[in-house]
Specification:
- The chain has 263 residues and is mainly beta.
- It is built from 2 helices and 12 strands; from the N terminus they run αβββαβββββββββ.
- The chain has helices at 2-17, 89-101, and strands at residues 32-38, 49-57, 62-77, 103-124, 127-155, 163-176, 181-197, 200-215, 218-224, 235-240, 245-253, 257-262.
- It has an 8-stranded antiparallel beta barrel.
- A hairpin with a 4-residue loop joins strand 2 and strand 3 (62-77).
- It is elongated.
Length: 263
């Protein structure tokens, strides 16, 4: 519903703009454009800004641009089974230990930077049509820290049905670099800006893009706090060098909307 309301508001602005004097402030030499890119057509209802772009016009028809993107996501999930019957002393104690110690934290992020050149071919009324090319770099990172609970039970020597004691402990696994990568990209594109009123515009782009990904090394540290394991053997570190890479070449159209201001 929010998405429909947003699109209706944009359409209303475009229609009302026809009644205003022809004052769209299309960019000229020395103009600076700033814009944000967002996707109102995504599957979730969260409003997410995908990037920030600054564009500087060297001449009336030539512009250079810089685009920056930053995404960060932190999650902390706790999932437990159904609480046991309170008559089961061991299970109840272990469940309480779980709720106080188990966790699963995940941190991911992505940073990107692109530098490009645009040649503006047609400036007619509200319309500004351009072509261009650009180079870019992006890098991602990820860290996952998972703590799981476990236990040892010791039965009574004289009565096997009874538990004489139990030890609770945790196993902590920290993983870095899972599916993280660095990438270089290049592309050619064409775009269209539609000016609504006095420098305010919306736009979109399509183009041919090339991307080469190099995946980062994978590191994992497992700390087992089992009291039955010797202290010097509780930490196990694994580091795997990742030499895999991936290249793609494809035509694309940006599903997001670019909303900007020229001044």
């Amino acid at each position: 519903m929010k998405k429909i309301a947003m699109l209706v508001a944009i359409a209303a602005t475009m229609v009302s703009g026809r009644a205003v004097a022809q004052n769209y402030n299309l960019p000229t030499a020395g103009s600076i454009n700033t814009e944000v890119q967002f996707n109102p057509f995504s599957d979730d209802d969260q409003f997410q800004i995908d990037g920030l772009k600054v564009r500087y016009f060297i001449t009336d028809k030539d512009a250079i641009r810089l685009t920056l993107g930053l995404e960060m996501d932190n999650k902390n999930d706790k999932q437990f089974g159904q609480a046991p019957d309170e008559d089961d002393e061991v299970a109840t104690a272990f469940y309480k230990y779980q709720t106080g110690n188990e966790e699963n934290k995940t941190k991911t992020g992505k940073f990107s930077i692109d530098l490009g050149y645009e040649r503006h071919l047609v400036k007619n009324g509200r319309m500004d049509l351009y072509v261009g090319a650009g180079l870019g770099f992006e890098t991602t990172w990820s860290t996952n820290n998972m703590i799981e609970a476990d236990m040892h039970m010791k039965t009574n020597a004289t009565d096997p049905d009874k538990v004489s004691s139990y030890d609770f402990f945790t196993i902590e696994t920290e993983t870095k670099g899972d599916n993280a990568y660095s990438a270089f990209r290049a592309g050619i594109f064409t775009g269209l800006d539609f000016y609504l009123y006095k420098g305010l515009y919306i736009g979109t782009e399509l183009g041919l893009k090339f991307k080469n990904k190099s995946y980062k090394d994978f590191e994992q540290t497992v700390t087992n706090n089992d009291p039955q394991i010797a202290q010097e053997d509780r930490v196990n570190e694994v580091s795997n060098k990742n030499d895999s890479s991936e290249s793609t070449l494809k035509f694309s159209i940006e599903p997001r909307i670019r909303l900007g201001w020229s001044f």
